[in-house]
Amino acid sequence: MRSVENDPRLVAYCGLYCGACGAYLKERCPGCHENVKAKWCKVRSCCLENHYATCADCKQFQTPRECRKYNNLISRLFGLIFRSDRAACIGQIKQMGLECHARTMAEQKTHSIKRT
Q: Most CB atoms closer than 10 Å: which of 34, 66, 71, 82?
């Protein structure tokens, strides 16, 4: 089993931190950027098409909550069930930068900012 480490390359396109995700730590998932099987993810596809490191690079929307690819019914349900706030992760990336976001998430050993 892997351990949680600080690596900006493990920040998913949606802002989640793969480096602290159970599937990544148990080596069942390579992380968002390396997961070529994740063609179903519209956020990932959009970021790849537009050469974004994350949704924080998007200039089309002020906040990811305005984006239908990012803020859809399934993602809202998962956020509610897991008390996860991916949009807050994107906000943190915009405010502090990708490296600081990765470091903060690794220090807290969490894959997402918790919904309040």
A: 71
